[in-house]
Amino acid sequence: MELKDEIRINAPRERVYAALNDPEVLRQAIPGCEALQKNSDTEFEATVTSKVGPLTARLKGSVQLSDLNPPEGYTLSGEGKGGPAGFAKVRAQVALSEDGASTLLRYDVKADVGGKLGQLGGPIIDRTARKLAGEFFQTFESLVSVPVAGEEAVPAAAAAPAARPTMYAWYFMAAAAVALAAWVLLT
């Protein structure tokens, strides 16, 4: 499976980059995240439970960051295992660019899914990936966005998320399933 997308986040690039590497922000933003641990500046481990079609999978996995170029981006490589439910391997390029006071996050994800998850077929996995990515970025954006002048900051739990297709890569990778999600973006 391959996914590409671009998301505009109302925050400076440095803030978005830092948040994409902050385990607490990621834990809050990843749907179904039970645990997320930062082992080093380039390694994360996660446990995520997610429903994909008729299956509910609890995936445990790891993510490695490489080709670091703060605050412009990096490469994510991850692997997740869910026992009989299956496995996932993900690789994503994540790029951040300034867009005035905002940041454009671009990602390009390649993922392989096997086991029972893989048997569900591409359309089910793709729909689930886009749904989870949308949930991830709605929460992520509410956590890192800078309020517009004259507006009060809205807590993440009270923010009204805007529906839009986004990246399953960060979800799958951060969960080592990132992404997929995010991030897959990272995403």
Summarize the structure in words.
The protein is globular and about 50 Å long. The protein starts with a strand and ends with a strand. It has one domain: Alpha-D-Glucose-1,6-Bisphosphate, Chain A, domain 4 (2-Layer Sandwich). The protein has a seven-stranded antiparallel β-sheet. It is 26% helix and 42% strand. The longest helix is centred in the C-terminal third of the chain and has 23 residues. With 187 residues, the chain is of the alpha+beta class. A hairpin with a 2-residue loop joins strand 6 and strand 7. The chain has five helices and eight strands; from the N terminus they run βααββββββαααβ.
Shape: globular
From N to C, what is the helix and strand string?
A: EHHEEEEEEHHHE
Number of domains: 1
Beta fraction? 35-45%
**Chain-averaged pLDDT:** 76
Content-based structural category: alpha+beta
- Low confidence ranges: 153-187
Output the CATH homologous superfamily.
Answer: START domain
CATH top level class name:
Alpha Beta
Report the major sheet. 7 strands, antiparallel
**Span of the ends, CA to CA:** 15 Å
- CATH topology group: Alpha-D-Glucose-1,6-Bisphosphate, Chain A, domain 4
